[in-house]
Amino acid sequence: MSDDSITIIGGTGDLGYGLALRWAKAGRKVFIGSRSAERAAKAAGEVRESAGEESQVQGMVNADAVLRAWIVVIAVPFAAQAETLASVKEKLRTGQTVVICTVPLEAAIGGAPTRTLGLWAGSASELAARTLPDTVHVVAAFQNVSAHAMQDLAETVDCDVIVCGDDAEVRVRLRPWVEAIPGCRFVDGGKLENARIVESLTAFLIGVNRRHKVKASGIRITGIGPSR
Questions:
Q1: Which CATH number does the domain 5-212 belong to among 1.10.10.10, 1.10.260.40, 3.40.50.720, 3.90.190.20?
Q2: What is the pLDDT of residues 20-55, one digit of tens each?
Q3: pTM to 2 decimals?
Q4: In which region does residue 19 sit, left (phi positive, over 0), alpha (psi from -120 to 50) or beta (all else)?
Q5: d(Cα 121, Cα 113) in Å, to the nearest integer?
C-alpha cells in the first residue's frame, strides 16, 4: 500500500465511478471495489477508456480492494451501508482511513431524496464509526459533490469538499485527494459530529437541482481564502 493509492468501495456506482475517473486522470492509483468482480473489472476498463489507457486502475471484489490502500472510500447508498461495512470491517487494517460519502436520504425507504432520515447516531458517518473497529480512522467527505459533475472530465467541479473527523491530522490526509480534483477545495469541517449538518446539505442541493433544472449544484464556503 502506498500514499498515492486509494480504494473506492462502491466504485461502480455514480459517485464512486466519478471519483475513480477524477483520481485516475490525476495519475493516482485507484482500486475499484464491488460485490461483483466482473462489474468492478468492467468499471475499471471504462475508467481507463475515459481517463487514458495509462491510468492505474484495477477492479476487484470489496474484500480484496480494502487491502490495497491506506485510504478506503465508502461510496454506497445509505440502504447498502450497513451490509457493505459488515462485509469488509474484518479486513480493515490498523491505521487505515475510511471515508464515508453516504447520505441517509429518505429515498432509502421509499421517501423523497430531498429529505434526510433522522438517525439515532446523528449521521451516516457517525453510524459507520460506531460499526467499524476503533483501530481505523473514520472521516466524512464528498457528500455534497455532484456525481454528474465528477463524471464529466471536460469540466471542473465547482464545489468545496467539507471533511469532518475527530482527528485533525487524519482530516488533512484527505487534502491532496480533494485538491487532485479540478475545481474542488478542501475545507476542514471539524469533528465527525458535524457530518450530520454536511449530509443534510445534500438533500438541500438535490432540491436546488430540481427547482433550477440543473444537475450539478454545489456549495462554496466564503471568507476563508484558499484551501483550509
A1: 3.40.50.720
A2: 999 999 999 999 999 999 999 999 999 999 999 899
A3: 0.94
A4: alpha
A5: 20
